[in-house]
Design a protein that fits this description.
769 residues, alpha+beta, Calcium-transporting ATPase, cytoplasmic transduction domain A, Rossmann fold, 14% strand
Length: 769
């Protein structure tokens, strides 16, 4: 058996189908005898079917008593014995078949509901291939230690967390993330255990043991998912505690008042087995299974039930609401310089720097197709940055030592960095400041949509907890429409806020880092972003998102709300139907045999209703067809490529502040060239290709009408800039009278484009996997 598998592999015949076969055979054979006018043989066969059900039912009763409570299986035993005592052999055979059918349906429902969790554990690898000086040898996965060089063959499961070495790896991470698209991991990139090699064999440097790897943690969560019964299931037990004596009282009164033991037996028949004990566990386990298929592992039924009752959600900022990785937000060039050249020089020097911001700058330059130069004489001083010679000039990137008077463009960068809570890498060339690269951690594109869906799911209060400064934290809170923002918190401060919120409502805490682990443990439900989060946060959490998408949190809450509602609905609905049938039977209007058939129908109905929890809620995010997803990925990539166009528009507006000179005219001409050659074709393609492709998933063409209006405004502003340029060329240059309107057009266009890009990324691009 797989050493990581928390689920035993069942062998041999299952008892439920065997019991079903025996009782069905006895009922059918007795029916044949009855049709042949052999009543004695029919009664004998039906009685044998009844006895066949009594034996396991007594075992279930004894097992329940051993656990400290008397379950409703006791009613089944009494009903079966009662039919034998009063000679209602057909009713006894029907009850036996009903009991066997109910148990078989319940077992089948549980197997279906746990199928995804079981597949999760059975997917865990049991061996690995280790490369040594003597060649490649197979070893048990438990013997892998950090630092080992492993070989992962085609179709094999990555055994431990590691780093790709040598050639790139093509991986299927659907088991971890729920996303079907293959991903490519290049040399040096991290790979999580549990991914499947979808390409050629590749080398993997182990970074953790199997026990400490990501997939082992997911399997442990899956194992724990069945270890604790949910509160809604315990609630069903409490209902059964009074349902059992009520049934006995009603049966006794029916016998006492009518003098007919048959009525008492009929009451017992329609009360057996209690549907609420079948429905609640099936609904909860179905919800856990449905969540696992969306890349959400729920530790146990209690966590799912509590998640469905949550009304307050607390979220960490960095890595949870934001991407957790720095990105180039803007490139500012000194007058006379171009932003593309500033980024190219900075990236050329930073190519050999191990600093995380240096890697971000280099990646941004390569994404924009800039040709980097090979620097010479590169040196790096920790905390200050890198320096070297690029194309014969002394270039440095990093912290600025400038003091005293600074040029206006540099002071503007300082102000922006302060207001945005961003970082900045200054570029100096031959000792003079020539530009700056502004870096920050932007919001996740799916964060706004996720929070809106959470409010629709019943979350009433959204609060952000962060150790960041108040100014950038409040800006994030404003953009996302949060109810409260708590900034400047250390781990102890987060725990204090969580405990205070927990006193008022069922509270969920969402985080990804080591510093979030105490708060996750203190919350009613802790949710960890396990795709890039720390092991400590995942171990402290009740729910782990195995994919790096925040919108899976909204999926999990919607699934939990629906599963809890279905569990309660099925349990109470089944119990009320049983109570109504008991009243009819006590009045003598429902004989035992028809009552058994009615109760069978009730059981089947509530179990089938409970299985609805396996379906994704109707409020889940829209699903795009494959061709639309392909277009989304294309246009999302173009957004990245168009950032320098936005920078050029802003730079042209800034250049007009120095007056209508040749430099200002050249900046406006360059901005218009980029707008007409690159931006407008992108917007027109979106209008005629992307929007028609995604509109059906969003409810029709009206869903994109507002964004189409923005395209019209972008066209209008661009044409207005073109008109100013024609006037300038006719008059030999820009006039002072043009400056205010032209500057307003450029600044306005820059703002419209930033907002438009953000809206598309949040509302459309975030729908794609």
């Amino acid at each position: 058996m797989n050493r990581f598998s928390p689920f035993p592999r069942l062998t041999g015949a299952r008892p439920e189908p065997v019991l079903l076969l025996l009782t069905a055979s006895a009922l059918v054979a007795g029916g044949v005898a009855w049709l042949g006018h052999d009543q004695d043989t029919a009664d004998l066969l039906w009685a044998l079917g009844t006895v066949a059900a009594i034996v396991p039912a007594v075992g279930w009763v004894l097992a329940a008593l051993h656990r400290g409570h008397a379950g409703v299986d006791l009613i089944a035993v009494l009903a079966l014995c009662g039919t034998l005592a009063v000679g209602e052999y057909l009713a006894g055979a029907l009850i036996a078949l009903m009991l066997a059918t109910g148990r078989t349906l319940e077992a089948a429902a549980r197997r279906r509901a746990t199928r995804d969790l079981r597949a999760l554990s059975e997917h865990a690898p049991s061996s690995a291939h280790r490369r040594t000086a003597d060649g490649v040898s197979g070893i048990p996965v438990g013997e892998v230690v950090p630092g080992d060089l492993l070989v992962v063959g085609p179709g094999e499961v990555v055994p431990v967390d590691g780093r790709v070495e040598g050639t790139a790896a093509d991986l299927d991470e659907s088991v971890l993330t729920g996303e079907s698209l293959q991903v490519r991991r290049t040399a040096g990139e991290g790979v999580r255990s549990g991914a499947v090699n979808a390409g050629a064999a590749f080398a993997l440097r182990a970074m953790a043991s199997a026990r400490d790897s990501a997939y082992a943690g997911i399997v442990r969560l899956a194992r724990d998912a069945g270890a604790e019964r949910a509160p809604v299931v315990r609630l069903a037990d409490r209902f059964a505690a009074w349902f059992l004596p009520l049934t006995l009282v009603v049966a006794g009164l029916a016998w006492l008042l009518s003098g007919s033991a048959v009525r008492a037996v009929a009451v017992l028949v329609v009360a057996t087995p209690c549907p609420l004990l079948l429905a609640a566990p099936v609904a909860v386990v179905s919800g856990i299974s449905r969540a696992s298929r969306r890349g959400v592992v729920v530790r146990d039924g209690g966590a799912l039930e509590n998640l469905g009752r949550a009304r307050t959600l607390l979220l960490d900022k960095t890595g949870t609401l934001t991407g957790g990785r720095p990105r180039v937000l803007d490139v500012v060039a000194a007058p006379g310089r171009r932003s593309a050249e500033v980024l190219r020089l900075a990236a050329s020097v930073d190519q050999y720097s191990p600093h995380v911001l240096a890697g971000t700058i280099v990646a941004a330059a390569r994404e924009r197709g800039l040709a980097l130069s090979v620097p010479s004489g590169v040196t790096e001083e920790p905390g200050r940055g890198a320096a070297g010679v690029v194309d014969g000039r002394a270039v440095s990137v990093g912290r600025s030592d400038a003091s005293g008077d600074r040029p206006g463009w540099a002071r503007a960068v300082d102000n922006r960095v302060l207001l945005d809570g961003a970082a900045v890498a200054w570029l100096t060339v031959d000792g003079r400041p020539e530009g700056a690269v502004v870096l920050g951690d932007p919001l996740r594109p799916d964060a706004p949509r996720t929070l809106r869906r959470l409010r629709e799911a019943g979350i009433e209060r959204l609060t952000m907890l962060t150790g960041d400064r108040p100014e950038p934290a409040r800006e994030v809170g404003t953009v996302l429409g949060l109810d409260d923002v708590r900034a400047g918190l250390d781990p102890a401060g987060k725990v204090a806020v969580v405990r205070a919120e927990r006193e008022r409502a069922v509270t969920v805490m969402v985080g990804d880092g080591v510093n979030d682990a105490p708060a996750l443990a203190a919350a009613g439900i802790g949710v960890a972003l396990g795709a890039r989060g720390s092991t400590a946060s995942s171990q402290a959490a009740d729910v782990v998102l195995t994919t790096d998408r925040l919108d899976r949190l909204a999926d999990a809450v919607l699934i939990a709300v629906r599963a809890r509602r279905i569990a309660v609905q099925s349990a109470l609905g089944g119990m009320l139907m049983s109570l109504a049938a008991m009243a009819v039977a006590a009045a003598g209007l429902l004989p035992p045999a028809p009552g058994a058939l009615l109760q069978e129908a009730i059981d089947v109905a509530v179990i089938l209703n409970a299985l609805r929890a396996l379906r994704l809620p109707s409020a889940a995010r829209p699903v795009l067809p494959p061709d639309a997803e392909t277009l989304v990925h294309r246009f999302a990539s173009e957004h990245d490529d168009l950032q320098n166009v936005l920078a050029a528009v802003r730079a042209a507006a800034d250049a007009l502040s120095d007056g209508p000179g040749p430099r200002a005219l050249a900046a406006v001409e360059e901005a218009y060239r980029l707008l007409s050659e690159r931006l407008l074709p992108h917007e027109h393609a979106e209008e005629h290709q992307l929007y028609p492709a995604i509109a059906p998933s969003l409810g029709g063409p009206e869903a994109t009408a507002t964004m189409s209006r923005v395209h019209t405004e972008i066209d209008r502003l661009t044409q207005r800039i073109a008109a100013h340029l024609r006037l300038a060329h006719a008059e030999g240059g820009l006039s002072a009278g043009q400056l205010d309107d032209l500057r307003a057009c450029l600044y306005g266009l820059h703002s419209v484009l930033r907002l438009h890009f953000a809206q598309e990324e949040e509302n459309y691009f975030s729908l794609a996997e």
